[in-house]
Model the fold of this input.
Amino acid sequence: MAHTIESRLSEAGITLPDAAAPAANYVSYVHFGTSLQTSGQLPMENGKLAMTGKLGGTVSLEDGQKAAKLCAINILAQAKAALGGDWDRLGRLLKLTVFVASEASFTEQHKVANGASDFMVEILGDIGRHARSAVGVPALPLDAPVEIEALFEIQ
Done:
């Protein structure tokens, strides 16, 4: 499994960043039993927020999907750190919860979330197929357009 995930990341041209440290009084992830819960991840790239704004406003659907993919990349970085780099301990992705900063008239949060969902299946294969919620919210930290948290099964 470890080789497969690393090779899929490489084929996709993705180098996982170092897992970001928490920005306040929380932890980046929590192990409980056979589960791993990540804190919400923002669309960070090279240590900075890649974009700001709201879907249905200054952020296009395509840019929202890119933001969701960046969140997913950061989720995998957190998972890798939580597992001590041992991808063989990853059971499957159980659920993504996707928060989309949206104007009131925007109703395509599910399409924004596809940016993360499609990426997770591309990289993780069948263990990346997951349950999901996509929720429109009025604002997110730092004016981020998307924030995503994940729940994984671990071994």
Notes: The longest strand covers residues 90-101.
